[in-house]
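[Discussion] Sanity-checking designs against the backbone

I'm trying to build intuition for which residues belong where. Below is a structure token string of 569 positions. I'd appreciate it if someone posts a full sequence so I can compare it with mine line by line.
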């Protein structure tokens, strides 16, 4: 009996009780605004059916269904009893279509075979308390530009300040800007807004109805550079805002309490900006200098040469710095290097590549490097170099010239085969040393009674194996390691490359083409590490540079190189 009582007590302690089933509508608003959706939530409490509720047509409203459902469950312990409840919420939006008193009649829902009826409700629909004015405009460059010329634009967004009279709250500029939808398109001003480069001011104006009101004006500036000629098409700018109709205070559930403002109702408004039509032009051909490389604007041009003392055919590096002197932001990505290969005063004395150059940008300066080679000896300067640009204001070309750079170019001396081959190697002889013979042979070096003892050792196969096996093993291992190291050593690799270089030089009968000169120069640089002939090889390399880059016709280059390698040790 005692155990039965305990069992019944435990069962009663943990028994579960459910609330009664219920279906009702959650719609606390008593007032709405024409065209602004009102939220109506149908709540199923402790209803197990999968059947969704149906809202009949209601006069004066259009009805739409929010996809999905919200479900929740709750379990509580009260006086030792477990109580469980579950709810399912279905959300609908009722949009008023006219002003006046609109009735929401009692609605009947069928769930779990039971009928549930809601309480009827009347809502007063009025006009929206504000016009929610939103305006967008773009100012700036609105005429034709030349390729390479910047385009400056300014975006201005006007939005009417919102004040909730019931709460006595006015939203500030930051709050109003946060109401712009993510679906808005800001075009070329997107990056500037993301960087926080927008300025805001408050001005007085009139609403759409002509009522005096306050506006926030957001101003953003951006600069772009056209990449091609022709009509420039801008991305559209369209601003969408969830303009508030009413605010509400929500009490925080934290320890310190408090409340926060939220947008209770909002109206979706939008505005588009009219973008200018701009034609991108190419600088005119009339009076265009032949070395013009497309620069548009005002620039400073400076050149540094290094080294300034060279032989014929040796390289001289020109470092060219182009600085944009215009005001405002610059973009040097599309600025091309000066076309030095079109400057006759330079190409007549120097070999100048005609390939396009890349540059490095630092601030308003772009730096290019070019390598030129003197064609002949006796050149005393690098002539003045030009940078031409087109001025879009005066529509004329201007040219900036550098000062001449003094240099010294030595003529490469021709060295004969006899000069390349060194003189006779002097041999040195050593005086023979007198050897003193000691009587008695090797035994004369030792005395003692042990000399009388027998030193004979009996030779056996085991003794022979013991003596000979370890040296043989270590000798074989040492040879293997030595051969392997030698095969991989730098000396072995150098010897192999040196042999290949000598074979290349011996295989060339002349050096009439640039390819043959390049082969000789490459082989000589491999042999340059041999200190016994380094001076002769350096002389031949200078002749290779003169032949390859200076136009020097060296008929004996191949013969002299061959003679040199034949006499190398």
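Best answer:
Here's mine. Compare freely.
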């Amino acid at each position: 009996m005692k155990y039965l009582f305990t069992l019944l007590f435990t069962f009663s302690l943990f028994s579960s009780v459910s609330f009664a089933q219920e279906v009702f509508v959650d719609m606390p608003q008593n007032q709405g605004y024409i065209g602004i959706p009102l939220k109506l939530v149908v709540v199923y409490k402790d209803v197990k059916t999968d059947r969704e509720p149906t809202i009949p047509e209601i006069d004066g409203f259009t009805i739409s269904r929010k996809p999905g459902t919200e479900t929740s469950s709750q379990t509580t312990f009260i006086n030792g009893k477990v109580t469980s409840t579950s709810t399912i919420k279905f959300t609908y939006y009722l949009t008023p279509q006219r002003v006046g008193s609109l009735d929401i009649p009692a609605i009947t829902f069928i769930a779990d075979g039971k009928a549930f009826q809601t309480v009827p409700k009347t809502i007063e629909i009025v006009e929206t308390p504000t016009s929610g004015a939103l305006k967008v405009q773009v100012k700036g460059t609105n005429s034709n530009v030349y390729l390479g010329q910047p385009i400056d634009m300014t975006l201005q967004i006007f939005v009417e300040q919102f004040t909730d009279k019931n709460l006595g709250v006015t939203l500030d500029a930051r709050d109003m800007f946060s109401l712009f939808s993510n679906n808005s398109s800001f075009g070329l001003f997107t990056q500037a807004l993301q960087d926080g480069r927008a300025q805001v001011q408050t001005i007085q104006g009139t609403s759409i109805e002509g009522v005096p009101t306050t506006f926030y004006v957001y101003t953003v500036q951006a600069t772009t550079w056209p990449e091609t000629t022709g009509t420039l098409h801008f991305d559209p700018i369209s601003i969408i805002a969830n303009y508030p109709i009413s605010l509400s205070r929500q009490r925080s559930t934290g320890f310190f309490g408090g409340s926060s403002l939220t947008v209770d109702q909002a109206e979706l408004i939008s505005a588009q900006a009219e973008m200018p039509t701009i034609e991108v032009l190419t600088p005119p051909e009339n009076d265009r200098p032949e070395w013009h490389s497309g620069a548009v604007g005002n620039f400073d041009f400076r050149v540094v040469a290094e080294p300034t003392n060279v032989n014929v055919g040796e390289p001289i590096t020109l470092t060219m710095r182009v600085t944009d002197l215009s005001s405002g932001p610059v973009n040097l990505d599309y600025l091309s290097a000066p076309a030095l290969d079109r400057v006759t005063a330079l190409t007549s004395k120097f070999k100048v590549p005609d390939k396009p150059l890349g540059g490095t940008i630092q601030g308003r300066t772009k730096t290019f490097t070019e390598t030129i080679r003197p064609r002949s000896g006796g050149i005393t300067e690098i002539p003045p170099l030009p940078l031409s640009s087109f001025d879009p204001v005066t529509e004329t070309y201007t040219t900036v010239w550098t000062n001449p750079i003094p240099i010294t170019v030595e003529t490469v001396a021709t060295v004969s085969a006899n000069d390349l081959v060194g003189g006779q190697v002097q041999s040195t002889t050593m005086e023979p040393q007198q050897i003193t013979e000691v009587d008695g042979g090797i035994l004369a070096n030792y005395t003692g009674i042990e000399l009388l003892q027998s030193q004979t050792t009996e030779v056996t196969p085991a003794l022979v194996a013991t003596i000979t096996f370890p040296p043989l093993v270590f000798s074989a291992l040492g040879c293997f390691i030595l051969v392997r190291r030698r095969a991989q050593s730098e000396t072995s690799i150098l010897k192999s490359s040196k042999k290949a270089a000598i074979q290349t030089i011996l295989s060339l009968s002349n050096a009439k083409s640039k390819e043959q000169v390049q082969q000789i120069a490459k082989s000589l640089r491999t042999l340059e590490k041999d200190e016994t002939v380094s001076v002769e090889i350096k002389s031949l390399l200078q002749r290779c540079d003169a032949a390859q880059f200076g136009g020097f016709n060296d008929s004996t280059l191949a013969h002299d190189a061959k003679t040199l390698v034949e006499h190398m040790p």
